[in-house]
Amino acid sequence: MAAVEEQARAEPAQVWDWLAQVPDPEIPAISLVDLGIVRNVRWVAGAGGDELEVTITPTYSGCPATEVIAASIREMLAAHGLGSVRLRQQLSPAWTTDWISAAGRGKLAAYGIAPPHPCSAGAAAEQAVDASRILRRAAPRQVRCPRCDSAQTQLVSEFGSTPCKALYRCQQCLEPFDYFKPH
Amino acid sequence: MDAAKPAAPFEYLLRLGDNALVLSQRLSEWCGKGPALEEDMALTNVALDLIGQARLWLSYAGELDSAGAGRSEDELAFLRDAGEFRNLLLVEQPNGSYADTLMRQFLFDAWHALALRELAASADPRVAEIAAKAQKEVAYHLRRSSDLVVRLGDGTEKSRAMMQAALEQLWPYTGEMFQGDALDRDAAASGAGFDPAGLRAPWLDYVGEVLAEATLKQPPAEAWMHSGGKQGRHTEKLGFLLAEMQFLQRAYPGARW
Ligand SMILES: [Zn+2]
């Protein structure tokens, strides 16, 4: 153990690269880094010497993947000789789909999931009841089919296979598809 | 500026956590039985958001619990009896028909969104961050439940009648959301919480607007209202819910997987 810890004091940039190879358990086409849930990587002083601290934030409060994500991070880092890693959960600022990287958006589309529209500026600060009023009255967002790029699509359900997605149907190619909801 | 930030009282956090936990458990009862696959998924997804929020509130409550010396979120969820639960009576009401479930959700979501907005500005930083996170999820719940109330209210004759009946049956459970007690006053005074009476006008305003759009008749705001859930006086329905939710930990104490 001690030998392993002494051997590796990887640069945070290197750690980010490794974490960029850890797939999201629910949408394996995109990595945890693409998803924007890795918030910080740094070395901190621990009881038994310096420790690597990785800060992650949940997508949704009840996301059942949270524990799998923590385990996959530990596994990936252990494979690179980082046996003792401190994982810190951070709630604030709350995760937003605006943190999904450009590369991540491209991978989602290629995987068949329509990437999220940007959240309106300051949407997080918007009051939910007012937001609900505005959203209910706004013209529905035009979501393009990730398969045939048709704009003739229709919302089937506000919730898809996971809390982060809504279910749509393409009226052109008739295929159903997921839309990553702006959050 | 060095004065210690106020912490929300333990029981205050229980109220927030128990609302989310009990409603989540109710919604989970629909799992596999929703009237359509999409609705089944939607209800269970809302349940999932709520169970996540319950965990955040109850973990924090457990840290501040002086009596039980740091009970875990699981101990708080599975090892308290009905009299120790602090949820609103509204959320423990049985699922009934799909109209009843949706109406209960709508009436609660509208309050929940307003309450979380207040709590997101709490002087207790833990409360503020949990509320800010939950608020985003609840905005979505509210939009969905509002839409469905309009669609089913302004739907067929049958769906409208069912929604109206659900509204009338649940209405007397809504008053409790705006009744403050000493705990609310203390929490509001410290800056950690808010005065529930202040939410009544914006709630009536929003709910009234959606009900009008749904062509449903809003019962009188001044109607007689039930109360007691926040202080631990529950309807007998909570006991049955807990019996199911807590069975495993009661029968096999400490069981894990
Ligand atoms: Zn298509």
SSE inventory with pairings:
The complex is a heterodimer of chains A (183) and B (257).
Chain A: H1 2-7, H2 12-19, H3 32-35, E1 38-46, E2 49-56, H4 66-79, E3 85-89, H5 102-111, E4 113-114, H6 128-137, E5 153-157, E6 165-170, E7 176-180
Parallel strand pairs in A: 2-3, 4-7
Antiparallel strand pairs in A: 1-2, 5-6, 6-7
Chain B: H1 10-28, H2 37-64, H3 73-78, H4 89-92, H5 98-119, H6 125-153, H7 157-170, H8 182-190, H9 200-213, H10 236-251
The complex binds zinc ion.
Zinc ion binds next to loops of chain A.
Key terms:
heterodimer, A: about 180 residues, alpha/beta, four-stranded mixed sheet, three-stranded mixed sheet, 6 helices, 7 strands, about 20% strand, disordered N terminus, B: about 260 residues, mainly alpha, Ferritin, 10 helices, about 65% helix, about 0% strand, binds zinc ion
Description:
- The complex is a heterodimer of chains A (183) and B (257).
- Chain A has helices at 2-7, 12-19, 32-35, 66-79, 102-111, 128-137, and strands at 38-46, 49-56, 85-89, 113-114, 153-157, 165-170, 176-180.
- Chain A has 183 residues and is of the alpha/beta class.
- In chain A, the strands form 2 sheets. A 4-stranded mixed beta sheet of chain A has the order 4-7-6-5.
- The N and C termini of chain A lie far apart (41 Å).
- Chain B contains 10 helices and no strands.
- Chain B is 63% helix and 0% strand.
- Chains A and B meet through helix 6 of A and helix 2, helix 5, helix 6 and helix 9 of B.
- Residues 145, 147-148, 150, 170, 172-173, 175 of chain A line the site of zinc ion.
